[in-house]
UniProtKB/TrEMBL annotation, chain A:
Hydrolase in keyword set: no
Recorded GO CC terms: cytosol; early endosome membrane; lamellipodium
GO biological process: early endosome to Golgi transport; intracellular protein transport
Source organism per UniProt: Oncorhynchus mykiss (Rainbow trout)
Highest taxon of the lineage: Eukaryota
Coiled coil: 436-463
Keywords: Acetylation, Cell projection, Coiled coil, Endosome, Lipid-binding, Membrane, Phosphoprotein, Protein transport, Transport
Protein name per its UniProtKB record: Sorting nexin-2
Function description: Involved in several stages of intracellular trafficking. Interacts with membranes containing phosphatidylinositol 3-phosphate (PtdIns(3P)) or phosphatidylinositol 3,5-bisphosphate (PtdIns(3,5)P2). Acts in part as component of the retromer membrane-deforming SNX-BAR subcomplex. The SNX-BAR retromer mediates retrograde transport of cargo proteins from endosomes to the trans-Golgi network (TGN) and is involved in endosome-to-plasma membrane transport for cargo protein recycling.
TrEMBL record, chain B:
Organism: Oncorhynchus mykiss (Rainbow trout)
Transmembrane segments: none
SUPFAM superfamilies: BAR/IMD domain-like, PX domain
InterPro entries: AH/BAR_dom_sf, PX_dom, PX_dom_sf, SNX5/SNX6/SNX32, Vps5_C
Gene Ontology CC: cytosol; endosome
Every PX domain range: 13-160
Sample GO molecular function, one term: phosphatidylinositol binding
UniProt keyword list: Protein transport, Transport
Record's keyword annotation contains Membrane: no
Coiled-coil ranges (or none): none
Signal sequence, start to end: none
UniProt-recorded name of the protein: Sorting nexin
Record-level GO BP terms: protein transport; retrograde transport, endosome to Golgi
Pfam families per record: PX, Vps5
Length: 519, 393
């Protein structure tokens, strides 16, 4: 069915994993990569201790498709088993189960005694420790948009330059060329890996059929240039946000995106591919499911945060709409001022009193300069203020998605518990069965099932605790970032306003003596 | 309803103690505005030295039309009639606001209501100013100030019973205008021997068109400016809500910026209002005055054509030796009329230029000064806010 998949970065990823493990870094990353093994819900691979890494095989049953309405891009493989009770994840081929390395187990063994949650925390702490040893020093620039090809198959290529002093990167400065679908493909992979365990993955910039078509068709006008610039800027912000996340930064796909010269084409991101349609179907199903899950929230923190984010979402959307209005009106003001300037110049021409005529021409010049000022201010309004708000509206959708995943995890746990209870009841009923020869067999079967379910219930509980913990951390990190972002942007924006006023003062001060000189 | 407002700014008039007119009060009722016209005069023809009457817009129009129709005044630029008070747009907005009351918070509603009420008040002040300017122009004109109708207008404290034109009369007016413009084209086509008038004709035609264009463009520019100020208003409100809801450090930023935008938005609105007053109104006024000047030229042109026709008729009569006396008198009348108009027209047009230059100078200087004042005010607010916020990070 679907379009051809990107060949799994099997060899590389596997190697990278090992390398990283040996370095003592990226411990968690390798763990997560293992998660991807497209094993159906089979019993735990015996090499992994039961209370080992929480991110074991069965984890896949979680829906990898997030609820982020903006983000349509989860992974898709050629095969989708729609008949399994819990939907299979639609993942790219990760390393095959055979790669389940022994080494990580070895690394794990010393920590066997610890509960999963603490272990997880340890691993995260390790990462953060590593981070502080290797402070975040990275700058990514997206530049030089260039049209490649012609007609409807044309696309925009962007140069991505990474400058960093961090040791996890092989070079201090790397430049690669990427196209938009590459970015979407990256996000798609990250989302499928991290969203359902509670990480807030920054959403990728939105597709725009209208905008791209104009570019493809070759319209060299102002609006296509604006569109390309808007997209370039959005892609840059997207990458910066992604790498600022300590976990995502270490993801092999992210590194590959930034460093390798050739990237397999992410075809599954096309809206009309089989994968795309599947996504839409799943999204609809998710929406229905969401409505039916009624969660008993025992943790007030989550309740509170959820409400806070709802409020924030509402207000940010409102603010975004108002700022977009402002951008629009300022652009209009610029156009009208230019038009008035021309008209004033004409009036000055026909005025037969010399001094007045000159003053009117000067007025026309002032207004022309002011129109440019308005245009520049509208640009700042947009790129500083409006785009930030847009980004955060989308980010909050990702946050809400993560909260939803927690709900789903809880729901799954509860469902498994219910199933266990039913089996136990069935077991006790078996006592009264009338076929004594079949009884033993049936009892054995049920005992097996119950054991399995007990394991799953335990797992479900752990998953739930884990995701809750991750979300707490993520939300705190998110809030810190949010505060920083807004503070920086607000100051920059106000400074742009200051500049505009200073220029205005200059222009009018130059005009005043001209006006007074009319005799 | 007393309020103070600056005196009519579009014309630079010599105020004269012998006759001073102003509008001291105005009342806005459902559809009409009632102006209190206040006169101070030392002229003997008035019963008192100081008195007031109440007049409505239609009475101003009646006065203006009586000037236009008076043959004696053919040689003068008749001060343009004030435009009809138009509160429709403002009323519509207030109504829409009332309908949308449910969809916004109480604070937003109160704010918008205040905004619209301020707008209504501004339009009101403008219409008062324009009616006043008309009266002042008449009072300043050496000949028009002596007009009987004008005195009645000022003094007669009963209703003048000037009804607005009914449908038939409006139709008549319409046709008259059509005939006049067609005639005007013919008359304008006649080349004038007099250089002065020929120049004025060309000049006024072009000037009038360009002022019209500039006036409409300036209106559009100012409207965009007002829209932008309104947007900033909404942004300030939302920022305030965000600030009160937010539990993090950034809430202080939101609240401070919200406060800042409230203030800067008021300044932006003032900038738009001042541009309206000093620039847009100036252009509108000179649009009307240049039309009045064109009308004067038309009347002179008409008189010239009549004079030339009378000459031809006289020649014909002399040739046929029939009705010579009649033709002679007719010719003399035409000649006198033409010369009278020409003489006063010349002075009127020169005065027009002087007034125009003075008005533009005054308004452009005031415009620049106000723009500077507001920009400096804005700058100070912005800089102080940035300072506070930077200190906090």
């Amino acid at each position: 069915m679907a379009a051809e998949m990107e060949p799994p970065p099997l060899g590389d990823a596997g190697q990278t994993d090992f390398r990283e493990i040996e370095d003592g870094e990226g411990f968690f990353v390798s763990t997560v990569t293992i998660l991807e093994s497209p094993e159906p819900s089979s019993p735990d691979p015996p090499s992994m201790p039961a209370e080992g890494i929480s991110t074991n095989g069965p984890k896949q049953e979680d829906i990898s498709l997030d609820d982020d309405p903006e983000d349509l891009f989860a992974e898709a493989t050629e095969e989708v088993s729609l008949d399994s009770p819990e939907r299979e994840p639609i993942l790219s081929d990760g390393p095959s189960p055979a790669i389940t390395p022994v080494t990580p187990t070895a690394m794990l063994t010393p920590r066997m005694g610890l509960g999963t949650a603490e272990m997880f925390e340890r691993s995260l702490d390790e990462l953060e420790e590593d981070e502080s040893g290797d402070t975040f020093d990275m700058h990514i620039a997206v530049s030089d948009p260039e049209k490649v090809g012609d007609g409807m198959n044309a696309y925009m290529g962007y140069k991505v330059t990474t400058k960093t002093s961090m040791t996890i990167f092989s070079k201090n400065e790397t430049t690669v060329r990427r196209r938009f679908s590459d970015f979407l493909g990256l996000h798609s992979k990250l989302a499928s890996r991290y969203l359902h365990i509670g990480y807030i993955v920054p959403p990728a910039p939105e597709k725009s059929i209208v905008g791209m078509t104009k570019v493809k068709v070759g319209k060299e006008d102002l609006s296509s240039a604006e569109f390309v610039e808007k997209r370039r800027s959005a892609l840059e912000r997207y990458l910066m946000r992604t790498v600022k996340h300590p976990i995502l930064l270490k993801d092999p796909d992210v590194m590959m995106f930034l460093e390798s010269s050739e990237l397999p084409r992410a075809v599954s991101t096309q809206a009309l591919s089989g994968a795309g349609i599947l996504r839409m179907v799943n999204k609809a199903a998710d929406a229905v499911n969401k409505m039916t899950i009624k969660m008993n929230e025992s943790d007030a923190w989550f309740e509170e945060k959820h409400q806070q984010f709802e409020n924030l979402d509402l207000q940010l959307r409102k603010l975004h709409a108002s700022v977009e209005c402002l951008v629009c009106h300022r652009k209009e003001l610029s156009v009208n001022t230019a038009s008035f300037a021309k008209s004033a110049a004409m009036l000055g021409n026909s005025e037969d009193h010399t001094a007045l005529s000159r003053a009117l021409s000067q007025l026309a010049e002032v207004e022309e300069k002011i129109d440019q000022l308005h245009q520049d201010q509208a640009y700042a309004d947009f790129y500083l203020f409006s785009e930030l708000l847009g980004d955060y509206v989308r980010l909050i959708t990702a946050v809400k998605g993560v909260f939803d995943h927690r709900m789903k995890t809880w729901s799954k746990w509860q469902d498994t518990q219910l199933l266990l209870q039913k089996k136990r009841e069935a077991e006790s009923k078996l006592q009264f069965a009338n076929k004594p020869d079949k009884l033993q067999q049936a009892q054995d079967e049920i005992k097996e099932e119950i054991e399995e379910l007990e394991g799953k219930v335990q797992q479900g509980e752990k998953d739930f605790e884990l995701i809750s913990k991750t979300i707490r951390k993520e939300v705190s990190r998110f809030e810190k970032e949010r505060v920083k972002d807004f503070k920086v942007v607000i100051i920059k924006y106000l400074e742009s306003l200051v500049q505009t006023q200073q220029q205005l003062i200059k222009y009018w001060e130059a005009f005043l003596p001209e006006a007074k000189a009319i005799a | 309803m007393l309020f103070d407002r600056p005196r009519a700014v579009n014309v630079d008039l010599q105020t004269d103690a012998t006759l001073q007119v102003d509008i001291s009060d105005a009342l806005s009722e459902r559809d009409k505005v009632k102006f209190t016209v206040h006169t101070k005069s030392t002229l003997p023809n008035f019963k008192q030295n100081e008195f007031s009457v109440v007049r409505q817009h239609e009475e101003f129009i009646w006065l203006h039309d009586s000037f236009v129709e008076n043959e004696e005044y053919a040689g003068y630029i008749i001060p343009p009639a004030p435009p009809r008070p138009d509160f429709d747009a403002s009323r519509e907005k207030l109504q829409k606001l009332g309908e949308g009351e449910g969809s916004m918070t109480k604070e937003e509603f109160t704010k918008m209501k205040q905004e619209l009420e301020a707008e209504y008040l501004a339009i009101f002040k403008k219409t008062v100013a324009m009616h006043e300017v008309f009266l002042c122009r008449v009072a300043a004109h050496p000949v028009l100030r002596k007009d009987m109708n004008f005195h009645v207008f000022l003094e007669y404290n009963q209703d003048l019973s000037v009804r607005g034109k009914n449908k038939r009369e409006k139709m008549e007016d319409f046709f008259k205008n059509v005939v006049k413009s067609a005639d005007g084209v013919l008359v304008a086509g006649v080349k004038d021997v007099d250089d002065f008038f020929e120049h004025e004709k060309t000049f006024l035609l072009e000037y009038h068109n360009r002022v019209k264009d500039a006036s409409s463009k300036s209106d559009r520019m100012i409207r965009s400016h007002k829209s932008a100020a309104d947007d900033i208003n909404r942004i300030a409100s939302t920022l305030y809500t965000l600030g009160t809801q937010d539990s993090t450090d950034v809430c202080k930023f939101f609240l401070k910026v919200s406060e800042l935008f409230e203030k800067t938005r008021k300044i932006e609105a003032r900038v738009a209002a001042d541009e309206d007053l000093k620039l847009a109104d100036l252009l509108k006024y000179y649009l009307r005055e240049s039309q009045a000047a064109k009308d004067l030229l038309y009347r002179r042109g008409r008189a010239l054509v009549d004079y030339e026709n009378a000459n031809k008729a006289l020649d014909k009569a002399r040739a046929k030796n029939k009705d010579v006396l009649q033709a002679e008198t007719s010719q003399q009348v035409c000649c006198q009329k033409f010369e009278k108009i020409s003489e006063s027209a010349k002075q009127e047009l020169i005065d027009f230029k002087t007034r125009r230059v003075a008005a533009f100078r005054k308004n452009l200087v005031e415009l620049a000064e106000l723009e500077l004042k507001h920009a400096k005010g804005n700058l100070q607010l912005l800089q102080s806010c940035v300072g506070v916020l930077k200190g906090d990070t």
